[in-house]
Each structure stands twice: as structure tokens, then as C-alpha cells.
Amino acid sequence: MNLYSTLSFLFDLAQPFQFSFQDSATDILSNLVNLHNTILYYLIVILIVVTWFLLAILLGKKNHISHANLNHGTLIEIIWTITPALILISIALPSFKLLYMLDEVIDPVVTVKTIGFFFCGQILYILNKRKDTYTPAPLWSSYLELGEKIIKPRFASKLNLVYFYIPNVRANNRVGPHNKEVLSVIFGSLLGDCYGNRKSREGIRFVFKQSIIHKEYLFWLYKFFYERGYCSNNEPRKFSTSLKVRNETKVYHRYEFNTFTFRSFNWIYALFYKKGVKYINPKIADYLSPLALAVWIMDDGCWTQYGVRISTNCFTFEEVKLLVKLIETKFSLNCTIQKIQTPGQYSLYIKADSIEHFKTLVLPYFPKSMHYKLGCASK
């Protein structure tokens, strides 16, 4: 067996004169295959029944089909009228479902065709004003022609990362998959102070807010998303809120920014929100990484005398227990749950015997201004 045949078998590539379908990678193709199989089943049944009737009438002599009510019988007319209708209905229902799934048409501004296997490092996805492609640089020319516009890419030699800008794209055309680094920052932020905002029916945007003392950290987040095409070039906005405590009014200054609205953020929103309230879904364990943990600590963590406390006030006791289990399983950290002064609210505490291991996991991702949250002096 040659190399191509081996790879075709392993990765289910299309074969010459292939009879069956390739394995589906999307819900739409899965439904198409199911519809095809359903229609084929009914066609085979109808073919067998009609063939049997024809042969029985044409070849039968003494035992040929005859009945007094065969031509003008009410029962037989009801049967051959209702049966095709039921068959058509059973075909129509999955057809309508598939039709509505296909209604969400993705019409990208640029379509790039790549030929190769996924282990060659080719990952293609469309974001907002930028298309990021991990691919060997020699495959690209210095300029790409798009209609009457010339787009000049920028190359990053270490990662073979190609950036090139695209005009404004509607939210329903901003698709994934988003890379692991972006997902880690989003998931870590959602465990902290970030929240999802359904601005329109087209998708979700995420809003980031921090007090003025954490300005450097918020601008670090903004730079992270801006460089990857997830937000505009408008820098974080400064705003003030007034809070009356007893007879004194205090003014708090903060900064905020938000990402663009992405339809491909809907699944993330569904993982974190139930009826508009943030909650913990066990499936987030698949997306927790040291970077996500670092962002979560920078958002909601604080250094105590011996360990790190994470504010989890907005989650229930059962949800905090689930977070403890996820952290212990995923990162081998020794954690516990602590009560706070407000009844019914709890915080998550990383114990002193895990702090050194914890620092090795998250400290490489910390901006200098946030080192104090791990008990380290800002260098």
C-alpha cells in the first residue's frame, strides 16, 4: 500500500469511484446523509412492491391478482392515496429541517483554497478584518489580489503566521474556529469579570471592564484581542460610576472595551449562561489551560499570606465544588472552599503547598503589573 493510499484510509479522503459518503464533519452533512438514506430506503421498498405487483399481474395465470373491489373499492383507494402521502411527509420533515439549517449562508469576502493534510500545519479560518493562516510562508506570494484591491500580507517567521487585512465583515460572516490561545483568554475572562452581551440576533460580543488601578492589565487584554482582529482600533473607554455608601458618595473610575460581535461566539455563551445567568458547565474543562487559569486569577484572584484566593461569589456552592474538582484534576493543585462574610457565598482557595507549582503554570502569562496577585514583587 503506497503513502497516498495509507493517508487516504487514515484521514478518510475522497477516493476515485467512491460509492459511499465520506465521514461527516458538520451537522449539515450528517443530516444530508440521513436524508439520502431515508429516501433510498423508501425507493427500494416502493421498487420491490411495484415489481412484485407487475410480475404477479403479467406472469400470473391462475393465481393472478383479481378482486371484485380492486377497481372501484373504497378501501383500496384510501390505501393507495394515504400511503404515498405518508411517505412524502416522512421525507418532507427532515428536508425542512435541513433547509432551515442551510439558511445560515456564510458568504466570506475572501475564499482561499489550500490542498494538503492537516498535519502539515495548515489551519484556515476567517475572523473579522484579518485572516490568520498557519501555513508555510513559501506557499504565499508577496501580494494577494482581491478584485481591484491589493492586499499585502505580513509574515511572522517563527510561527509561519500570515496576516492580511480584509474590509469590514458582517457578524454572521465572522466564523471560527478560534485558536486555542484566544479561547483560553475568553474562558478565563468569563470565569472572572468578563460578561457576554447579545447585542443583536447575529451573535455575541464579550465586554471587559477593570478598575483604573488595573488599567495596564486591561490594555494588555485589549492589545491581545486587537492584534488578532477581534476588536476595533478604539482604545478602552474610561468611565466613572458613583456609589453611595451610608452618607458618603464614592466615585469609581474604570476602563472597558468589547470585542466585535461574532456568531461563532454563540456556543461559548451557551456554555456559560443559562437564562441570562452565568453558571459553571462541566464542559468548560476541555478549554481550561494555564493561560485561562492565569487570566482568571488576574481578574478575580488575590494573594493572601500563604495562598491565592479566587472570588467565586456569583456561583453556587455546587458550582464552586465543580470548579475545585476541575482545577485539581486538570492542574494537580490542592484547593479548598472557604466561606466569606456574605451568607451563601463562597471563594475558592489554592493552598500553600501548591503555590510553587501554581506559579510555574501561570506566571509566564502575567503582565508585570499583576505579579502582586501571586505574592511576587513587580519587576
Mean pLDDT across every amino acid position? 76
Structural class: alpha+beta
Number of helices: 9
Number of domains: 3
Oligomeric form: single chain
The CATH topology of the largest domain is given as: Endonuclease I-creI
Helix/strand order, N-terminal first: HHHEEEEEEHEEHEEHEEHEEHEEH
What do we call the CATH homologous superfamily of the largest domain?
A: Homing endonucleases
* C-alpha termini separation: 59 Å
Overview of this protein structure:
With 379 residues, this protein is α+β, with helices and mostly antiparallel strands. The chain folds into 3 domains: 24-101, Helix Hairpins, CATH 1.10.287; 118-169, no CATH class; 180-374, Homing endonucleases (Endonuclease I-creI), CATH 3.10.28.10. Helices cover 36% and strands 21% of the residues. The chain contains 9 helices and 16 strands. The chain has helices at 3-11, 27-59, 74-101, 180-191, 215-227, 266-272, 290-300, 317-331, 355-362; strands at residues 123-126, 130-134, 144-146, 149-151, 154-156, 161-165, 195-200, 203-211, 237-245, 248-258, 273-274, 277-278, 301-303, 308-311, 335-339, 346-350. The strands form 5 sheets. It has a 4-stranded antiparallel beta sheet with strand order 1-2-6-5, with no helix packed on it. Strand 9 and strand 10 (248-258) form a beta hairpin. Helix 2 packs antiparallel against helix 3 and helix 4 (180-191) runs parallel beside helix 7. It is elongated, with a radius of gyration of 30 Å. It starts with a helix and ends in a 17-residue tail after the last helix. The model is unreliable at 7-11 and 115-167 (pLDDT under 50).
